[in-house]
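Data deposition worksheet. Section B asks for the primary sequence of the deposited chain exactly as it was used as input, without tags or linkers unless they were present during the calculation. Section C holds the resulting structure in token form. Section D is free text for depositor observations; keep each observation to a single sentence. Incomplete worksheets are returned to the depositor.
Section A, Depositor: J.P.
Section B:
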Amino acid sequence: LYRDPRDVAVSYFHHGKATGAVDESLSLDGYSKLFVESGPISGNGFGNWGEHVGSWFGAKEDDPKFLPVSYEAMMNAPESELSRIAHFLKIPASHEAIETAVERASAAEMRRIEEAGDIGHKRGKHKFDENARFVRKAKAETWREELPPVAARRIEDAFGPSMEKLGYL
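Section C:
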């Protein structure tokens, strides 16, 4: 599963702030510099977006056992993407089963589970923290609203060839 690195930067920025992995004083523009240099969370061992995504495509792109799936495709057409994945994995899945899986994985359902205390971040004694949601917007292209233009250009300059190959530029 891969995602537009501009959206990844925005998502990890908010996630990192909520969990304390990103300093509260750091701006999204400042974070984008770290994101390009070392990856979503420094020291995670995965490298930056270009290294991580590039390693998978470089090693597996022609492998028939490799199925790249974009976050955006999953968001725009979840039933057809899930059907494609099930077919690839040779898992029989009826239309009803696919619909149920999509419903259970919806942002609304995941937020409900999060609020019930099964996933997400809490502050204090098991108290749900609205500002530290694990499932934040669950949308593609939020970078257009949140990422400063200079930060978007920084990411595009760093990862342009891979972004172009994946249809992001």
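Section D:
The longest helix spans residues 149-165.
Confidence is low (pLDDT under 50) at residues 122-128.
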